[in-house]
Each structure stands twice: as structure tokens, then as C-alpha cells.
């Protein structure tokens, strides 16, 4: 079951700031430049967050639009995935960029704890985000922070709320959510194959777990994220 | 690995009302009477919620105190477990009854979706509830609504926030949380045995799933809930 490895690059993320790491691209032009480098090195998917001028995260559709235009121009053929994650906004503001019709967007289908708070994805917001993605032809990447999120995504796939083949990302190593645990990783794959045959999956480890999880991905035939 | 079966009876719960089922015990004296019947029929643990006069749920320590006294008198030796669940209150109010020193109390260690909302158990509240249980010698029953909750409980057990042998209840069949899935049930048991050897576990299915899950419990050596 080895598949060609798709390399997914997460530009900027929602947390690091210039003060933590001066190399983090913050402005749209820095982001485009850095993604272009990854694209030329073989990355095929760009997972994107955008920032305000003060480096705080935002879901501003105008910023996302500028980034999307730049990436389409400088990285032709690259799959652009915009984040609808809750660190960047609340409620329907989280999906305001979906009408830009990016190739993909992240979609959380359940709630869980984060290091210091609850990551809230109430059922009606999940349904609304999924329906906006369906309306604009945006493929969701399911952010599975826990096992039940895989069950929920498979249910939404079966009943048509998420059309087509499911694409699931396992997120591991976030404090108070799922740790980077190999046995769980293997069970996640087994569950995806059981509940949504033919689905694709990838995995993201947070911080120091990224390298470890990339190895697990490669050895199990999934995609990797850098 | 068959153990003697402990029968756990959930009196009242947090949802049903007299209008749904006239047999639901609502007042403290109805609850005591109904638990005594279950006790005489062999139940050894009573999982308890309390209600206001208008049947809405509450965490009122005075009501819990009356119930606890009644159960100690009418069901001598029965293990009384009080609910700290979020349907009955918010924040520290959820743990106000712990100073009554019941034998056990329920403890959620993560957040997840419920049918129409987020079940919020933020990390600082989880830590506070666990520390109150430790302070008053109350044994927590971990309410595992998802796989990461088992990991979190094992972590808190290792670092002493939850002392002694872990006692975990798998909650399945709640819409938007974990469905009643046999493969997951078996993996939950495997995970408890791997991360917290010697831990006890039981399982609760919601509504129509209860009978099914009781059968899985009995066939796998866990406790059952009626
Ligand atoms: Zn990915
Ligand atoms: Zn992201
Ligand atoms: Zn129980
Ligand atoms: Zn309960």
C-alpha cells in the first residue's frame, strides 16, 4: 500500500512569531517567497495561515486572497490549502475565505482540549463550514485531533456533507489533545481504512514531534508535512 | 482476565424528564427509593445526578448531601458516585459537592462535542477538579468520551494528579462524540491495559446502545451500567 509521497508544507502556522524565530515568514510576500522555495524543492501542498501586521493570526479573506493569488502565480500547480482553524477567528469568520475557492481548506469536525483552552468546533459551525466548502468546491482536509473525529468525518462523507474521497490529517503531539503515540497512529490508519476505504491521510506532529511523525508516515505510505 | 462484574446503576441521569418517562425518579426520596431497589437487586455503584424542583439539572451541594445521606442509610456499603458533569453547572460550581467526600465522582479530562454543543472541560478546570478529589479522598471515574481522554488520564495518573489505580468509563453512542463501535471498544480496553496496567474500566452506552454495550462489557470482563 505504498503511495507516492505528497509533501505538504505548513507556512507560518498560527503560533510562532519573529521574536521566536526570525526566519518565520510573516508578511504575504515573505510567505510567497518561502513557499516558492519549498515548491521548487518538491512540496505539493501548502497549508496556509495569514497574519496581521502585528503578527497576530487572522482569518481576513483579503489577506488570504493576496496569498492565494501570489501562490497561484509563483507556484503554478501547487495545491493551496487555507486554514479555517479557530486560532485565527471565531464563528462564521473562520470560513469567510472559502468563497475564494482555494483547492483545499482545513476542517475540524470535533472539539478537544488545547494546551491552555478548549478548541471549540460546535456541531452547527462544523456543518456550516462543510456546506460552504461543498458550495465553493473546496476539498476539506479533516484535522483529526482525536479518534472520534475520524468517525465523524466518515459519517459526514457517507451522508454527503463531505463529498468525494476523504482526506484526513492526524494531528499529534498537541498538549492535552492526542500525544504522538505510534500505536494510536497505526490504529488511526486502520480506522480510516475501515470506515472510509480509499481515503487519503497524512499526519502532522507539533514541534519536536514533526520529524518522528514524518518517519511514521513514510513507513506507512502516507503523506508528510514539513 | 474475567473479573467479578460490578453493576453500576445511573439514577436519573441529566436529561430525561417526567414528561418523557413518568418512572424517572426526580425528587431525592424517589431517587433513594429507586437506588435501594437496584441495590437489593445487586447493583454496587450508584452514579448520581440531582435535579431542581423544575426537573432541571443542578450541582447544588445541599441536594447532593441529602441524596448521599439517604443512600448511606438505605444502601449501606453501596459505592456512591456523584456527577461533576457539565450539564449540571459551570466552572468550579461543578465540584462544589466534592467536600461531601462521596466514594467516587465522575471526572472528564478532555473536551468533545455533544449533540448540539461543545462539552467544555478546559485544562485548568480538569486540574482543579482532580485536585479537589485528591484533597477529599474521592476516587475519580474518568469519563472517556474519546481516545485522547484515556491518554490524558494515564498521564495524570503517572504524575500523581490522579492517585491510585485508574478507573475509566468508556462513554459511547453520544451523537457527535464516539459512536458505539465494537472495534473502538476493544481498542479502548487495549489502550487502558497498555497505558495504565491494573486499571479498572466500565462502559456506558447512551439510550438504545446501553444493552449492546453491557454485552460487550460482560464478554470482555468489565463492569456494566444499567
Ligand atoms: Zn497534509
Ligand atoms: Zn494550520
Ligand atoms: Zn461505571
Ligand atoms: Zn452522569
What would you note in describing this structure?
The structure is a homodimer of 226-residue chains. Mean pLDDT of chain A is 89; it is low at 1-5. In chain A, strand 1, helix 1 (28-40) and strand 2 (45-48) form a beta-alpha-beta unit. Chain A has six helices and twelve strands. In chain A, the strands form three sheets. In chain A, strands 11-10-9-6-5-2-1-12 form an eight-stranded parallel beta sheet. The longest helix of chain A has 14 residues, at 61-74. Chain A has 226 residues and is an alpha/beta fold. Chain A has a single domain (7-225), classed as TIM Barrel (Alpha-Beta Barrel). Chain A has helices at 28-40, 61-74, 123-135, 147-158, 182-195, 210-220, and strands at residues 7-11, 45-48, 50-51, 57-58, 79-82, 104-107, 112-113, 118-119, 139-144, 167-172, 200-205, 224-225. The two termini of chain A are 22 Å apart. The A-B interface holds A 110-113, 115-124, 126, 145-148, 151-152, 155, 176-179, 181, 183-184, 187, 191, 194 and B 110-113, 115-124, 126, 145-148, 151-152, 155, 176-179, 181, 183-184, 187, 191, 194. The structure holds zinc ion (4 copies). Residues 8, 45, 169, 202, 223, 225 of chain B line the site of one zinc ion (ZN).
Amino acid at each position: 500500500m505504498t503511495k507516492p509521497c505528497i509533501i505538504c508544507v505548513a507556512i507560518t502556522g498560527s503560533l510562532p512569531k519573529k521574536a521566536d524565530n526570525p526566519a518565520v515568514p510573516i508578511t504575504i510576500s515573505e510567505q510567497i517567497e518561502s513557499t516558492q522555495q519549498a515548491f521548487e524543492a518538491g512540496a505539493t501542498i501548502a497549508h496556509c495561515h495569514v497574519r496581521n501586521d502585528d503578527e497576530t493570526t487572522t482569518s481576513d479573506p483579503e489577506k488570504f486572497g493576496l496569498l492565494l493569488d501570489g501562490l497561484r502565480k509563483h507556484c503554478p500547480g501547487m495545491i493551496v490549502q487555507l486554514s479555517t482553524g479557530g486560532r485565527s477567528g471565531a464563528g462564521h469568520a473562520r470560513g469567510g475565505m472559502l468563497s475564494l475557492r482555494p483547492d483545499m481548506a482545513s476542517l475540524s469536525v470535533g472539539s478537544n482540549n488545547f494546551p491552555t483552552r478548549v478548541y471549540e468546533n460546535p456541531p452547527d459551525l462544523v456543518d456550516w463550514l462543510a456546506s460552504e466548502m461543498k458550495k465553493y468546491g473546496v476539498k476539506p482536509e479533516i484535522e483529526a485531533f482525536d479518534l472520534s473525529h475520524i468517525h465523524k468525518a466518515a459519517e459526514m462523507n457517507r451522508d454527503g456533507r463531505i463529498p468525494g474521497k476523504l482526506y484526513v490529517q492526524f494531528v499529534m503531539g498537541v498538549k492535552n489533545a492526542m500525544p504522538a503515540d505510534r500505536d494510536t497512529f497505526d490504529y488511526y490508519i486502520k480506522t480510516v481504512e475501515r470506515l472510509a476505504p480509499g481515503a487519503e491521510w497524512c499526519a502532522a506532529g507539533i514541534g519536536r514531534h514533526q520529524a518522528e511523525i514524518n518517519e511514521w508516515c513514510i513507513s506507512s505510505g502516507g503523506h508528510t508535512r514539513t
